[in-house]
Amino acid sequence: MEQSKRPGQEYAQRLSSPFMRFKPDAISAASLVIAFVSAFLYFLGGFYLIPAVIGIIVASFFDAVDGEVARRRNLQSLRGDYVDHVIDRYVDVALILGIGFSPYGNPVVTVFALSGIMLTSYLGTQAQAVGLKRDYEGIMGRANRLVMIIIMGIVQIILPASYPIYWLNLTPSLVLLLILAIGGHATAVRRVYRALEKLK
User: Fold this and answer.
1) Which of 26, 95, 111, 125 sits most deeply, having the most CB atoms within 10 A of its CB?
2) Residue 92 lies in a domain
3) Secondary element (H or E) of residue 168
4) Taking each helix axis from N to C terminus, what angle separates 49-72 and 24-44, rounded to the nearest 10 degrees?
5) How high is the mean pLDDT in each 10-residue block of the chain (200 residues)?
6) Which residues contact 45 (CB under 8 A, 6 or more apart)?
7) Is residue 8 assigned to a domain?
8) What are phi and psi of 32, to 5 degrees?
9) What pTM value is reported for the model?
């Protein structure tokens, strides 16, 4: 079955060459471990925010590279694809919880952000499950989410103060969660609409 091109694939092809001697599973495992450590450091906040953001950048890079290494070494398999998606979801959950329950987040907004992300990812693969191409379209695809998390993490380092607005203590990280919540659910609805149109 033909699959749509993954976001950021062209960049990953250029950067994957130094990692060709490693197995894709090893790269994926490194991405998972680094992401979990980064999420915990983000949760701690303060000085730990800097290594947290650096770790998220490294984990995102490895996440982009593992698939390219598998393709270029002809090691693609259904098992590898499944493992990659499992790791992606665990990383998504870890990062959102780390950010949401940090000194800069909000638990209520975190619930909406996490549910939006999970629905977006689920509906993208569910399209494939009913015979369509995997759906990567939408403003809150995984590549866009990771870029946004990195950018807003850097902004959080630069602007650590909070700004009370009604019941929210607004921070760059909270703004990120709000964007992920709204954008995630909007992307999920859009993917439902696209799938239903194709299934007519």
Assistant:
1) 95
2) yes
3) strand 168-170
4) 160
5) 49 71 88 97 96 96 85 82 89 96 95 94 83 79 90 94 79 95 92 86
6) 102, 103, 104
7) no
8) -65, -50
9) 0.86
